[in-house]
Amino acid sequence: MKAKVYADFNATAPLRPESAAAIAEALAEVGNPSSVHAFGRVARARVERARAAVARLAGSAPRDVVFTSGGTEAAALALKGAGRRRLLVSAIEHDAVLAAARDGGRIPVRADGRVDLEALDGMLAEGGEPALVSVMWANNETGVVQPIREVVTIARRHGALVHSDAVQAAGKLALDFAASGLDYLSLSAHKIGGPTGIGALLVREGAPLIPQQAGGGQEQGRRSGTENLIGIAGFGAAASAAADSVEDWRRVEALRDRFEDEALAAGPGVRIFGREAPRLPNTSCISIAGMPGETQVIALDLAGIAVSAGSACSSGRVKRSHVLDAMVPGAPEAGNAIRVSLGWTNGEDDLAILVRAWRDLYNRASANMKATA
Ligand code: PLP
């Protein structure tokens, strides 16, 4: 039987058993968390336990947590709900943020994938009304971790509010929302081993938030609608499991590093984006000269290995990566990159299969290059 290796954790992670168990438990019960009777109180307790677990994962107070339908809604709620008309977002943000700041300024990044702090300072100094700045904690394509503390310091000097999309960082890095100085932070359950369709926006106490969805006043009036009890239960359990296993990423990081060492040793024409910067422990954005990323993804899929090309392709389309273009404008390698993103289910066997299949690809690309030279 053909090997199956899942190496696309940044797209979505497998449901953790703890999360599946919590979902099953919630499914077996009835009760609206807003009802005053005993059934409702049990449901409310379940929501609040999950809120505390999510808060622990992100280093925030439970009252900061507003449950949403996922990372996309969380980012939109922050960017629209902060009430600032002037938006400055990094050029490498996920589409969730870019789309919510369509007319906003784009903060450039340097070749290593880290946001250009001087440029941010300059853009904020241009004056105008107070801004909202959005810089992701870690990038979904390259794994590059952003200097959030410095971003906050600069933004504060100019009276700006700051949001960070921590959808990819959560669970893989220790987060401390309270100490970060951030006003808003976005999370998504399905990247940490919870179900899809549930996430959260953390809102610092005192930070403005104009609700984007009015109704029954749930989530302290910040996001109306009967709570997604099943999703929230699964999110809470995944958050607890993730918080208790941050150390496991060291093992994953060692696998990722060995994959990259093997790849770089194959020969010329290999490039790893963002390798000079601090990165998530699981992500490798790697290109092979002369071979489109899409071709690599298909070939690896035929070998039983799941990875992504360029930016995570919603609706199955693969477009040129705006992230790599922002890092190295016009670089031909940008179209030849794939994203390998490992996780807790991967082990030595997977690494061996991945290295072998990737080497086959590399040899094919080298042979093609020689034939057309
Ligand atoms: N932000 C980042 C960095 C992501 O990687 C994703 C998902 O790919 C999102 C936001 C969107 O999250 P969700 O799928 O929960 O809407």
Radius of gyration using CA atoms only: 21 Å
Low-confidence stretches: none
Distance between the termini: 38 Å
Report the count of strand segments: 13
Query: What small molecules does the structure contain?
Result: pyridoxal-5'-phosphate
Order of helices and strands: EHHEHEHEHEHEHEEHHEEHEEHEH
**Main beta sheet strand tally, sense and closure:** 7 strands, mixed
Mean pLDDT: 95
Number of contiguous helices: 12
Instruction: Please tell me what the overall shape is.
Output: globular
Fraction of residues in β-strands: 5-15%
Output the strand order for the largest sheet: 2-8-7-6-5-3-4
Helical percent range?
A: 25-40%
Structural class: alpha/beta
Provide key terms for this protein:
alpha/beta, 12 helices, 13 strands, 14% strand, 7-stranded mixed beta sheet, binds pyridoxal-5'-phosphate, 373 residues
What's the short version?
By secondary structure, this protein is α/β, with parallel strands linked by helices. It is 39% helix and 14% strand. It starts with a strand and ends with a helix.
Task: Walk me through the structure.
The longest helix has 25 residues, at about 350-370. This protein has helices at about 15-25, 40-60, 70-80, 95-100, 115-125, 150-155, 175-180, 230-245, 250-265, 295-300, 320-325, 350-370; strands at about 5, 65-70, 85-90, 105, 130-135, 160-165, 185-190, 200-205, 270, 285-290, 305, 310, 335-340. Helix 1 runs antiparallel to helix 8 (about 230-245), helix 5 (about 115-125) packs parallel to helix 6 and helix 9 (about 250-265) runs parallel beside helix 12. Helices cover about 40% and strands about 15% of the residues. With about 375 residues, the protein is an alpha/beta fold. The protein binds pyridoxal-5'-phosphate. The site of pyridoxal-5'-phosphate (PLP) has 13 residues, from helix 3.
